[in-house]
Amino acid sequence: MNNKMRLHYSLLFLSFFFLQFSVAQSFSGGKTEQQIEQEAFTFFDGENFINALPLYQELINVYPQDPEYNYYLGVCQVEVNENVKEAIQHLKIASTKNVNASVPYYLGRAFHMNYEFNSAIRYYRKFREYYKKKSIGIDRLIEMCQNGLPLVNSYYVVDVKNKKVVNRNEFFRYYDIEGFEDRLSKKDKSLTSRYDGDGDREVACLANKGQYIYFSSYGKNKKTGRDLYRAKRLRNGGWGEWEALNSLNTVYDEVYPFMSNDGRTLYFCSQGHTSMGGFDIFRSVYNEISDTWSEPQNMGFPINSTSNDLFFATDLNDEYACFTSSRENGKDEVTIYKIKLSDYPEQKVVMNPDLLSNIAILNVGSSSVDGNLFEQGAEEPSYSMKYNKEDFPYFNFPVTSELTYHYLNEFKSSEAREIFIEAKNDQFNSDSLIDGTEDLRSQLNGLEGMPHTILSNKISKLEQKSFELSKQAENKLLKAQSQESDYLNKNIIGTVTAEVHAPSKKGQLVMSSEIIPSANSRSGAKVVNKTEDGYVYHLQVGVFSNRAESSFFSGLDDVKEEIVGNGKLYKYMVGTYSTFAAAKKKIPEVRQLFPNAFVVAYKDGVKISLSEAIKVTDQDYKPEPQPVAAIVNTKAIQTVTDDQVNFRVQVGAYSGEVPEDVKLKLENFSKYPIDYSKDYRGYTICTVGNFDSYSKVSKLKMELREAGLGDAFTVAFSGNDKITIQQALEILRQ
């Protein structure tokens, strides 16, 4: 071995040594991974997301692809409103393993908070579709996203004079506008319902020189939430009968009414009307002649955001105003913004929707320019369109862990391709600015006084712009990756729950896990469209982006077609069976043509779960015993009652034989029960252990990972039904 080779191997050894050392030292305070995880989950379970977040971040640094850690970190980031864009990536990783039933909900919230309303709607609907019992309020969240779409097409340039972060309790005490305190009043008993509580609900606004008072209350019942009322001053100094502002009230909450000094313009906050998230601020004008209120007008973006925006109040001359928002804060704090009002506020079109979250951050002495924040008076650098479709260089763009693009024509989603081109141009301009600053720095030598200061400021601004463009490029690349993978997942390669096999000549075969209604349709294939009454079973063979020809199902009988995916996809099933056992017997035969065929159940033409159908049609059904050869060094899983909760570690799900290296690694864990069972798709699910404690299973999970089974994660069962970790812990606490 020559000296060069010796040096090469020495460097490899040292690199490996330092890598091992860095991993070993990666946890703070000398704690083990299990201790960090247990502490983090204790905080999480107690909804102390602020303290749980840094612990899960520490775990993610070591296990960046762990689905559980990604789920918990993503939820924490959403709950405390921190790094929401990053939370989307964490939650998408969690979604690949179906770690928790709430993943679609939190993905919807993350997209919603990031002003990506269409993506938010998609995940909200997915959560509502699969988890109807837990989806209370989802319809309203979807409505808010739909409200937001037109609101963020343009934005008002807001002149922010001051902003400060305060505790959310009685935040209005910090408002600094002329005459505000004189119009702020506390509700007395005559203005309080027995349903009203303490705190902000006691705030009222005096108007028309103290002759009226405006306030919110639950009123006589709580069915419509908090509503707006006003009362007139009596001669004895008290207040008269309540007058509900019915044209302004909705079935949702209305709070913080504030009457302008003109005695006609009322500002208030509502979760109803056209709110795009939480409470939005609205304005309505009172007509004394007709005794009516104008249609509530949303104050627009970015005064309103996807967070709670509250208590808009103006000074005596309608020159300045204050309002409060939680858009930049966690649960315990809010930010107060003092702005200068304008009779004709400047309105601009949103050129880049990716930067809506930037526009929403209202900085003092700044104006929004197409979504990029610059100090007033800053020189905006020129932007060059270096790359276009016709002349784009070779590149390496990882779409998934197994798929990398090198040319533009490989993109299947035109939207993802355009975003990718934008990202490359952003990065080119960022790099160009850095090159320019290096030239300017060489000119600093020899300059003193004002010329030095001016040039230094220019360099600083160019560096800031370069940084913003670089981050913008990074975010666009992530979005392009997400858009392309989502497109492939929906239209080409299928969902994560099934693989793709045997595409037809006319339509690309995809797999779908949607719950879909029955449909009466016609096809070139010999399909049966009659809806069967009662419980029946079919073998689902695939979903196509185009209608399949009859020849594609040659050799199969009783082919059925359903239109799915909003009318864009065609789902095909074969056979009709009265029992699950009968359908299952046909699987080997059908899988010769369609390797991923699996059993689905219907009741009166509507798809239902297999477990629900089997309880009725196959009351005596027992799973077939597994061949002895398929089980290596296993111990029987103890019999579990229907209400008993247990935790296991899932090592993997395999469409074929369990890999030999996995079996060899599991030999060292033969003291634990090892189970190989088939799911409804025919996949072999391998789990290890059987514990009644989350902390106990956590220790085994760490050991399995250290043994080289890096995809191991915790699963929970109630009896034989798989449930989420949170559900299991709730059952144990009862």
What features would you highlight for this structure?
about 35% helix, signal, 5-stranded antiparallel beta sheet, WD40, about 725 residues, Neuraminidase, SPOR domain-containing protein, globular, alpha+beta, TPR-like_helical_dom_sf
Report on this model:
The chain is of the alpha+beta class and 734 residues long. It is built from 18 helices and 31 strands. The radius of gyration is 31 Å and the shape is globular. Helices cover 33% and strands 22% of the residues. It has five domains: 33-153, Tetratricopeptide repeat domain (Serine Threonine Protein Phosphatase 5, Tetratricopeptide repeat); 155-367, Neuraminidase; 397-492, no CATH class; 535-618, Alpha-Beta Plaits, CATH 3.30.70; 645-732, Sporulation related repeat (Alpha-Beta Plaits). It starts with a helix and ends with a helix. It comes from Labilibaculum euxinus.
